[in-house]
Structure formats: C-alpha cells, structure tokens
C-alpha cells in the first residue's frame, strides 16, 4: 500500500490525487537490490502496481485513522516508510478505493535484513578509465622493507610465517603521507616516510574519505 503525506511543495500538485495525506496505490514488492552507493539503503522492484482512481484519506469520516496507530507512535507513525498493517485495514483501504478487496492478503516480515538471496546481475563488460598515477620508485620500496621488515606494523602478520614459501617477501609499503599531497617529485625519508602493512591494514588506513589514518590510530582500532 502506498501513500503520501500533506502536500508541502506546490510544484508536485499535479502529480498527486489529493493535497491531503492519502493512500494512492498498491503493489507487490519484488526483488530487493542493495544500493551500491550506501551501506544502509536498498532498492525494491515494484510488481503489479495499481494506482487508485481516487485518493483514500488517512482518516475515516469520524476523524479516526484508518490504521490502528499505537499511542506511543501518534506523532511519527507515518514516518515509517515500511510497516505491517492488519488485513482488515488493507481491505478497508481497497474498498474505499473501489478496488476488489477479496484478493489474497500477503504478509511480509518487517525484520531487518533479507532472507532471500539476491539474484546476480550481468557484469564483465569492459570500461575505460582515465586516472592520474604517481610514480613509485622500486628502490625506495625495497629499502623500506630492508629497514622496516616484513611484519605488518599494525597487526603484526608475517606472510611467510602464515603461508610458507608462497608468502616469502610479501608486504605492502605504505607512504605515511600520500604521494598525491606533495604535488611534486620528492626524495622520501626511508625511516620516517614509509611503513610496511598487510593488505587489510593498508586498505583500511586509506578508507576514510577525508584523511589517511595514522599507524597509531589504526593500532587503537584493532586493540
């Protein structure tokens, strides 16, 4: 069941059935797709959507709400965009909209998360990207490893100890200050401008959008 609140912006007036709060249509929720730009948002496929010919106001003629609103949620009940309603309420709204209210009533779970496995979508097409790369000197990398060693300076993992011969000599060399912030070529200090990190710690240290974490800050996180 879909609804709109009180009209506040006149530019949407022609897109609505009514200026007052009202129910305007019904449909079924189909595939749920995670929003790739947000960890907390999802898109929902709407199937079998049917728009009402006339609006159904939130309230009955006697001023009572069609929905049974708990007393604790009187002020913000309609802010909850997804919620469960009783079958009798569902059929009452359809009846007021002059739509067959004898159809089957489908309940849904309002619990967080989804039990359904998301279906895969096509991928693998080639894309061209144009980026600016900053030159790294392999000699500096080796000198940094010679000085700092092969143990991650945050979590302590050593890849040869963990994976044997396959992990021998493997570690990421991290620039304490990102190269992009220099805006020119420079000669780094092997002792103070580098750190050695495992790929996990290296990825997390760069994850904040506004700054690069320090070694000390990352150590505090995992401790």
Task: List key phrases describing it.
single chain, 223 residues, 3-stranded antiparallel β-sheet, two-stranded antiparallel sheet, 5 helices
Topology at a glance:
Layout (H helix, E strand, L loop, with lengths): L1 E3 L17 E13 L7 E16 L29 H10 L41 H11 L10 H5 L8 E4 L18 E4 L1 H7 L9 H8 L1
Antiparallel strand pairs: 1-2, 2-3, 4-5
GO molecular function, one term: nucleic acid binding
Pfam family, one: HNH
Protein name: HNH domain-containing protein
Q: Can you give the mean pLDDT?
A: 83
In what order do the strands lie side by side in the largest sheet?
1-2-3
**Unreliable residue stretches:** 109-116
Helix amount, in percent? 10-25%
**Number of separate helices:** 5
Please provide the ordered H/E string of secondary-structure elements.
EEEHHHEEHH
Total domains: 2
Structural class: alpha+beta
Give the amount of beta strand, in percent.
Answer: 15-25%
- Spatial gap, N to C terminus: 48 Å
Number of strands: 5
Specify the biggest β-sheet: 3 strands, antiparallel
**Oligomer category:** single chain
GO molecular function: endonuclease activity; nucleic acid binding; zinc ion binding
Domain HNH: 152-206
Organism: Fodinibius salipaludis
Region (Disordered): 107-129
């Amino acid at each position: 069941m879909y609804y709109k609140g009180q009209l506040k912006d006149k530019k949407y007036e022609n897109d609505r059935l009514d200026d007052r709060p009202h129910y305007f249509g019904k449909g079924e929720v189909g595939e749920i797709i995670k929003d790739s730009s947000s960890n907390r948002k999802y898109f929902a496929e709407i199937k079998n959507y049917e728009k009402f010919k006339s609006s159904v106001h939130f309230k009955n003629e006697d001023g009572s709400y069609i929905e049974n609103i708990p007393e604790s949620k009187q002020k913000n009940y309609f802010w909850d965009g997804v919620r469960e309603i009783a079958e009798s309420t569902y059929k009452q709204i359809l009846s007021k909209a002059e739509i067959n209210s004898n159809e089957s009533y489908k309940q849904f779970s309002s619990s967080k998360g989804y039990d359904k496995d998301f279906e895969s979508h096509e991928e693998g097409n080639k894309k061209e990207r144009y980026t600016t790369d900053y030159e790294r000197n392999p000699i500096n990398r080796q000198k940094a490893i010679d000085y700092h060693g092969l143990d991650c300076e945050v979590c302590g993992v050593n890849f040869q100890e963990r994976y044997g011969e396959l992990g021998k000599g493997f570690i990421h060399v991290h620039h304490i200050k990102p190269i992009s912030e220099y805006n020119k070529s420079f000669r780094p200090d092997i002792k103070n401008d580098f750190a050695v990190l495992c790929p996990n710690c290296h990825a997390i240290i760069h994850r904040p959008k506004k700054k690069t974490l320090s070694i000390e800050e990352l150590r505090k996180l995992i401790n």
